[in-house]
């Protein structure tokens, strides 16, 4: 089981997903059974990870201004084509110290109304016991644009990245907090690209 999955794909009022994985590749079917699509009116707004029978881990900005009855969690598919199993949402729990201005503590839990049915395409991912330090190899998966500007990929994308320590990252981005995670990839590859070689998540 691959760990340290981070996903982010936002959709604005105009329907444009602006999260992205640039330079990734299509994920094999069933290779990321914990990956879900958070949807509103059958449209993808964010990714997330299954961490328990009724629990999803996602970003706090994904559930900001949302209500449970308008959201659905879709599991068991790599393609945004209407397939997969849909689950109703019971409760949204953003981090109590989430700051929408700085995106500090941008993490949240989603509780579902019923238990997820696990199979070879749907499963949970274990949370790390310790903070992720520098020099770790991560696998990132998610939906979004594959270039900027560019078209939205409807097939789940995946990419390998390496973490930077917070001290290393702070030399480039002084504004990061202790809860931030910075990654580095090959030039032009990664997520939320802000410079030629570095990526800020």
Automatic annotation (TrEMBL):
Keyword Oxidoreductase attached: no
Alphabetical list of SMART domains matching this protein: Tryp_SPc
Positions of the UniProt region annotated as Disordered: 1-24
Positions of the Peptidase S1 domain: 21-193
Keyword Hydrolase set for record: yes
GO MF term set: serine-type peptidase activity
Keywords for this protein: Disulfide bond, Hydrolase, Protease, Serine protease
One of the GO biological process terms: proteolysis
Cross-referenced InterPro entries: Peptidase_S1 (IPR050430), Peptidase_S1_PA (IPR009003), Peptidase_S1_PA_chymotrypsin (IPR043504), Peptidase_S1A (IPR001314), Trypsin_dom (IPR001254), TRYPSIN_HIS (IPR018114)
UniProt-listed PANTHER family: FI18310P1-RELATED, POLYSERASE-RELATED
UniProt similarity note: Belongs to the peptidase S1 family.
UniProt-recorded name of the protein: Peptidase S1 domain-containing protein
Organism: Cryptolaemus montrouzieri
Taxonomy of the source species: Eukaryota, Metazoa, Ecdysozoa, Arthropoda, Hexapoda
């Amino acid at each position: 089981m691959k760990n340290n999955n981070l996903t982010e794909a936002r959709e604005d009022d105009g329907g444009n997903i602006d999260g992205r994985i640039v330079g990734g590749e299509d994920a094999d079917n069933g290779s990321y059974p914990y990956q879900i699509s958070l949807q509103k009116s059958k449209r993808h707004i964010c990714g997330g990870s299954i961490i328990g029978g009724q629990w999803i881990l996602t970003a706090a900005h994904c559930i900001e201004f949302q209500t449970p009855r308008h959201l659905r969690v879709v599991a068991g598919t790599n393609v945004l084509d209407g397939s997969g199993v849909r689950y109703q949402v019971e409760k949204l729990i953003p981090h109590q110290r989430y700051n929408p201005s700085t995106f500090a503590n941008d993490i949240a839990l989603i509780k579902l109304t019923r238990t997820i049915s696990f199979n070879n395409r749907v499963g949970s991912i274990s949370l790390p016991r310790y903070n992720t330090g520098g020099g770790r190899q991560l696998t990132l998966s998610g939906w979004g644009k594959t270039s900027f500007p560019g078209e939205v990929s409807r097939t789940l994308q995946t990419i390998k990245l390496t973490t930077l320590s917070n001290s290393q990252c702070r030399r480039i981005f002084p504004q990061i907090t202790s809860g931030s995670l910075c990654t580095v990839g090959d030039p032009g590859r990664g997520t939320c690209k802000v410079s030629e070689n570095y990526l800020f998540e």
